[in-house]
């Protein structure tokens, strides 16, 4: 950690060049003897990314940023704040703490937070930043999280971990057992140190696989930002043995789309089907990730178009956690019908359909964008159809 980066002159240079061409800066000699051009570019790149992802960090003076790879692996401030509201108590230990975005959020609701990070430089950066942010109840410890727990007699109200989803060759991995640390291997031990464990996993982990590898899962939280699933949170309670509740949230346009259910509710629903009616509904990404394909229809009194399409319809307009469309007309997927599509530009979505979006665009010579929305899907009678819509709620 090069402390010269924190000097007033260097900080001013970084702020003045947030919108500059970093390649030109990299090729030039650094204007500072103690700071290289590469270090300047790393700070500029990471601070630029922090403007949207970590606005509190961006607005705070003298924040030291890690390289952009480390920054890309951190939670966003939105998701960190969300998970901080899932915990309460006197002590929490974050055993894979990284830059400390989550630790800082937890410190708002927990009396004492232990930030444990084995990378010494990252630990030092986090400690410096906590001071700038005024977080005085976080203790930074640079060591391996599991080893620290094994060598420390203390128990905690909460254990939080975000296992690394990259292997020794920096390639992405997707199964819990391939992550570091392997929570499936250490789960029994972790429950000797706390009754409450919160685990963050990536968006690609299959929920059924996660439930098979974990136990005492009380809640699963699926967080999407801008209709893109960012992380899945697994809340484990040592004394819980019932069906887990699944909670989905999509942060979009300063609103929160929330939907929750229990797995037995999804399993007990028998969907109703119909041809497309007046309105079309597409659940947001968090709901689709949750697998609530039947219960979402029952909850909102909607009909499904097909068992595998996961599109829904109604005769009357309702408020819905996802995209909502007014259906203009419905076409068969045939050359004759497709000639009725009188546009050169459209937003295309395929659901349970044999052709790809790319193939459809080429076939119809349609550019992307505009105000037209075309859904290529299969209806309840196994027919390939095209639903021509206009969007109502984004």
From TrEMBL:
Pfam families: Cons_hypoth95, PG_1098_Fer, Thump_like. Residues 279-321 form the PG-1098 ferredoxin-like domain. Residues 322-390 form the THUMP-like domain. This is Uncharacterized protein.
């Amino acid at each position: 950690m090069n402390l010269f980066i924190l000097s007033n002159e260097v900080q001013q240079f970084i702020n003045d060049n947030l919108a500059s061409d970093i390649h030109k800066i990299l090729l030039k000699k650094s204007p500072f003897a103690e700071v290289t051009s590469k270090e300047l570019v790393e700070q500029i790149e990471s601070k630029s990314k922090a403007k949207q992802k970590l606005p509190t960090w961006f607005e705070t003076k003298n924040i030291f940023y890690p390289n952009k790879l480390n920054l890309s692996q951190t939670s966003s401030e939105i998701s960190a704040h969300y998970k901080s509201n899932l915990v309460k108590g006197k002590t929490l230990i974050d055993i894979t703490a990284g830059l400390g975005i989550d630790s800082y959020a937890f410190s708002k609701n927990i009396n004492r937070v232990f930030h444990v990070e084995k990378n010494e430089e990252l630990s030092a950066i986090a400690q410096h930043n906590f001071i700038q942010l005024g977080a005085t109840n976080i203790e930074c410890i640079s060591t391996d999280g599991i080893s620290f727990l094994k060598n420390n007699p203390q128990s905690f109200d909460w254990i939080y971990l975000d296992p690394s989803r990259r292997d020794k060759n920096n390639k992405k991995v997707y199964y819990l057992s391939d992550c570091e640390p392997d929570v499936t291997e250490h789960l029994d031990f972790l429950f000797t140190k706390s009754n409450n464990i919160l685990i963050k996993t990536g968006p690609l982990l299959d929920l059924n696989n996660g439930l098979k590898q974990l136990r005492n899962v009380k809640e699963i939280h699926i967080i999407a930002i801008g209709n893109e699933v960012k992380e899945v949170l697994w809340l484990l309670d040592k004394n819980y043995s019932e069906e887990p509740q699944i909670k989905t949230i999509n942060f979009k346009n300063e609103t929160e789309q929330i939907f929750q259910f229990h797995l037995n509710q999804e399993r007990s629903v028998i969907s109703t089907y119909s041809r497309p009616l007046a309105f079309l509904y597409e659940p947001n990404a968090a709901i689709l990730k949750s697998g609530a394909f039947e219960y979402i229809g029952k909850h909102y009194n909607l009909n499904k178009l097909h068992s595998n399409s996961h599109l829904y319809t109604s005769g009357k307009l309702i408020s819905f956690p996802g995209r909502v469309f007014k259906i203009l007309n419905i076409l068969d997927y045939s050359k004759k019908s497709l000639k009725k599509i009188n546009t050169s530009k459209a937003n295309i979505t395929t659901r349970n359909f044999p052709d790809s979006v790319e193939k459809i665009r080429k076939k119809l010579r349609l550019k992307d964008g505009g105000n037209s929305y075309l859904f290529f899907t299969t209806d309840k009678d196994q027919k390939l159809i095209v639903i021509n819509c206009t969007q109502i709620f984004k």
